[in-house]
Design goal:
By secondary structure, this protein is an all-beta fold. About 0% of the residues lie in helices and about 50% in strands. It has no helices and 11 strands. The strands form 2 sheets. Strands 2, 4, 5, 6, 9, 10 and 11 form a 7-stranded mixed beta sheet that branches. The protein has a 4-stranded antiparallel beta sheet with strand order 1-3-8-7, with no helix packed on it.
Length: about 120
């Protein structure tokens, strides 16, 4: 059974940092691109960041560019999202996902494995 399990969420103040992790079990995703998405209350789930299978290419939503960093381990079993200078508008449930392809994409339909999400709440 393939599973993606996120961890590292929590309640922080504006300006703080958090590091999210996503552990893969059941298989590795070393040949697949992976990404982070988020869903704020009452809103649709949106793209946050993606990383290619090699880890050399990354892509970010404009809203997080310069503050968030996506990375992955070489074995393809863990995905990370380092979030700095957090803002109240970053409050959301954060999901990790594994793509069916090696190249990065912001398109949700290209991702065929999803975690259950981890809550991040940023107070002002």
């Amino acid at each position: 059974q393939v599973q993606l399990v996120e961890s590292g969420g929590g309640l922080v103040q504006a300006g703080d940092s958090l590091r999210l992790s996503c552990a893969a079990s059941g298989r590795t995703f070393s040949t697949k691109a992976m990404g982070w998405f988020r869903q704020a209350p009452g809103k649709e789930r949106v793209f946050v960041a993606a990383i290619s299978s090699s880890g050399r290419d990354t892509f970010y939503a404009d809203s997080v560019k310069g503050r968030f960093t996506i990375s992955r381990d070489n074995a393809g079993t863990t995905l990370y999202l380092q979030m700095n200078t957090l803002k109240p508008e970053d409050t959301a449930v954060y999901y990790c996902a594994a793509s069916a392809w090696a190249t990065i994409t912001a398109t949700q339909s290209w991702y065929n494995y999803w975690g259950q999400g981890t809550q991040v709440t940023v107070s002002s």
